[in-house]
Amino acid sequence: MNVDLLPLVTVIIPAYNAAKTLADTLRSVSNQTHEHLEILVVDDGSQDGTYELANDYRLQDSRIRVLRQENGGVARARNYAIREAAGSYIAPIDADDLWHPRKIELQLRALASLPDGRGVAYNWYVAIDGNDVIFAHSKPVLYKGDVFEIMVRENFIGNGSTPLMPRTDVVACGGYDPSLRDQKAEGCEDHKLYLALAERLPFAPVPDFLTGYRFTRGNMSSNACRMLRSHALVMAEIKKRYPHLAAAATTAEFDTARWYFRKALSSKDHDQVKKLAPMMAGRFPLRLAIHGAGLVWRSVKGRARRLAKRVIGKPPATQTQETMTAIALPENGTSFHDRFEAAAVGRTGVLIKPRGGDA
């Protein structure tokens, strides 16, 4: 097939001091089976050789173009790339994340299934550590069509490296909001854009774990208090514009805070725990009390079920259990690369290798 007949997708990669991970990210983009790509790397005022590394990688893939700006944050870097983009679709990826080789191909196929072929495609993700090893994964949801109210309740996409979005609609929505950074609340620019897109477009899921989303101590998503400030500002706009969704937005704020608190506890990040505990007690006292009572009730029910199981035998599987057993979930402790070693590769003809392997 003539590559030029396929839709042009512009991949945008904001990069700040990303010299340690950018080559792996670029390799995962270069190896996409959908080859008609424009790859824009925006060096956001790096001081560690990111710009030089990106320019060197251009020798391996002529589709790459390197842009440069003074440090202005991820939203401004992404918006710079969007202004320069020639593609019909925008596919963002952060400079430390990874893609499955078929990610763009499968997302375009999902969009083709929509009535007029116009919408936002997303997939599921796995959380990876500094060695590309999987240690968690997103909830495998299949929300489609009008997802605006669902997106208010939860950012089910979960990161900025997953969606495939029509460029004209991204521009019409104003792109990513840099004012959150200016208010010292950087972090939820992607969620805010997804909400704006969900007001005007249907969403289409790709039911597979195609994004490797890296969690490392010190990255933006690990700064819980800043992320929660960012989320609160985004939800405040929703409450103002859609008063009937105010309760759902407040629930989303509580659930988000609770998620970060559990994450801080599990990773033994005592500094974050000390900051989050009084904040949650001050903002959500009633919800914390109700949630605590619910935990006690579920614990009592769980003990009762286990006792009944011992007495009468194994109970029938629930619908949720049956659904989950039909999905091949990622295995913790395995490499993200193991998920696609047998997949077809893109134009480079080289499979992505784990860090430290031969390129």
UniProtKB/TrEMBL annotation:
Residue ranges constituting the Glycosyltransferase 2-like domain according to the UniProt record: 10-140
UniProt xrefs under Pfam families: Glycos_transf_2
InterPro entries per record: Glyco_trans_2-like, Glycosyltransf_2, Nucleotide-diphossugar_trans
Protein name: Glycosyltransferase involved in cell wall biosynthesis
